[in-house]
Amino acid sequence: MQSLWMLLASLMFSIMGVCVKLASDHYSIWEIVLSRGLIGMLFIIALILVKGGTLKTPMPRQHVWRGVIGVIALSLWFYSFSLLPVATATTLNYTSSIWLAAILFGAAWWRGNTRFDWGMAATILISFIGVMLLLQPSFDPNQTLGGLIALASGLISAVAYLQVRHLGKLGEPEYRVVFYFSTTSAIAGLACCLLLPGGSIPFWHAHNVQGVALLVTLSLSATLAQMAMTRAYRLGNPLLTANLQYTGIVFSSVWGILIWQDQLGWRGWTGTAVILVGGLLATFYNQRQARPQTPLRQEKPLADETV
């Protein structure tokens, strides 16, 4: 189920990405961030009214921390697109899985625990090689600042994923984690719309049906993706979840072919295959590690022998 939840999250994130790309012709990035947060909040409130639940939480500080680092990571990633080619920015952001493995290794070493999931970490590296083949990133020496920003977004994203897992382990339901992240996104989007140079009142301009539909779709898909991702990180091995996150690039590539008639070429298709193989290896490896060992059948005790 952990794998299925992460695959669903990757699909929803890919739909969100397509809508963001199309909606950017109608709205600013900060208007999109604001919309994503507002509609996500309304969706969660409607879900609570229908299915029950409460927004009251015993751990407000953890939610604030998760929201802040998540918005920072997202903002850095969006900003890196203005400094780097899209493929390079995306590849560097997806180093979050490698950062996650490094953080877990460092934590295990610090605690004196020599057991680290090297097999799962290897599948992450395999999938990242597939990402590089698929996206074929390029880098210019003059783009050092953009590269550092994109790498920082990947590192901060890894911290955010660990915080999501921590909240889930503490018993926070997915809808509550996503609600407070959406709230932080809405506040950050509104503040940037009003306070950044050249800013203005958000949405105070002409609209059309296509633009509004894109905003609603990307916001709902982002909310569903966050809920599925939160559940995936809560249920099992974080390295497996991080590895399966790479499948979002495969979904995005398929959307590119269907909508913009993108051509992958042999390297792109090879990269896609490598990503899928890495995900399958990670899933099978995780199942094998989680499978309980079958106890040896105990023999009946021998009757007492008379000496």
Structure description:
75% of the residues lie in helices and 0% in strands. It is mostly helical. Helix 3 (60-80) runs antiparallel to helix 7 (144-169) and helix 8 (174-195) packs across helix 9. The N and C termini lie far apart (58 Å). Residues 293-307 have low confidence and may be disordered.
Number of helical elements: 12
Structural class: mainly alpha
Low-confidence segments, given as residue ranges, are 293-307
Tell me how many strands there are.
0
Proportion of residues in extended strands:
under 5%
What is the secondary structure topology, with strand pairs?
Layout: H1 2-23, H2 29-51, H3 60-80, H4 86-93, H5 96-110, H6 118-135, H7 144-169, H8 174-195, H9 209-235, H10 238-244, H11 247-260, H12 265-290
Helix pairs in contact: 1-9, 1-11, 2-8, 2-9, 3-7, 3-8, 4-6, 4-7, 5-7, 5-10, 6-10, 6-12, 7-9, 8-9
Characteristic key phrases:
mainly alpha; globular; disordered C terminus; 12 helices; 307 residues
